[in-house]
Amino acid sequence: MSTDHTSGARPEHTGRAGSDVPDPAVDAGYPDAPARVGFFTDTSVCIGCKACEVACKEWNAVPEDGLSLTGMSYDNTQGLGASTWRHVAFIEQQKPVSSGPPAPEGRTQLPLAAGTGTQETAAEPGSMRWLMSSDVCKHCTHAACLDVCPTGSLFRTEFGTVVVQEDVCNGCGYCVPACPYGVIEQRPEDGRAFKCTMCYDRLGAGQEPACAKACPTESIQFGPLEELRERAALRVEQLHASGVPEARLYGHDPDDGVGGDGAFFLLLDDPEVYGLPPAPVVTTRDLPAMWRHAGAAALSLLAAAGAAHALPALFRRMPGRLGKGIR
Q1: Which residues pair with 185 in a beta bridge?
Q2: How far, in Å, CA of 52 to CA of 66, rounded?
Q3: Which of 211, 215, 214, 217 is nearest to 109 (CA)?
Q4: Which one of 3.30.450.20, 3.30.70.20, 3.60.140.10, 3.30.460.30 gives the CATH number of domain 24-285?
Q5: Rounded Cα distance, 41 and 131, in Å
Q6: 96-138, pLDDT tens digit by residue?
Q7: Are 134 and 41 in contact (CB under 8 A)?
């Protein structure tokens, strides 16, 4: 059985604040929306080739974001941002392991050099393994970035994904702190926000996103979200049966703090190791209740102001009685 690391209080809304519609695309106004699609990233077969990063940049014309190594292993970007829509993390661990995870059924494990990927040829003290993972925008069911956008630049597509319209964005930056994953970012040149679109233009043409198309090991899998969740659960069972008990899913649960992610992951360690929050919660979860409390407070203030205005007039009309009461 998989271990869920995104448990948290379920938001009251589903597609947006105050909504009870379970399908975010239907909630966004697409009554005949196709099946929701997403990404399943199996980090156990990621080899860190960065083909997904390159394909994303080439297809979406994402600008170069630094070619110098950061000192964080073979990482030159460190995280997602306005000019990094796909980020391959390299996590080095001093953790001896005898062999890497088995390949999914029907596929052959690609040969890996000693000490790379999640394989290790010797279980000697001090040996090292690399955990590799291609991170991306989660395309949350409860998208706080979309909730707070004042211009409509962020919108929900018919595929259930969340996209930024760069020509509508006014650079207010409200979406940046709203994201519980720290995905979306503003470019310093003009302040506009950018993030992964899940190749919305390719989806409309019946094609899969460029990153999934380019992945040589099928670590990044694209398809109907429900189908991916079933496939991921079977993969975790396979890994557990093969002696990899630390395998777990992240972001797959519709009952978690963001209503489930449109891009979820199979991890081989705690989410924090990969730079992911252990229990993300949509930051706009309490907005409906906050507005109700604010409205109640405003009515109380109006009532108090009315009483403060009326009482002096009442006292002026009753001078004799007040005087007798005082004596």
Answers
A1: 194
A2: 16
A3: 217
A4: 3.30.70.20
A5: 13
A6: 655 567 777 766 555 443 334 454 444 455 577 889 999 999 9
A7: yes
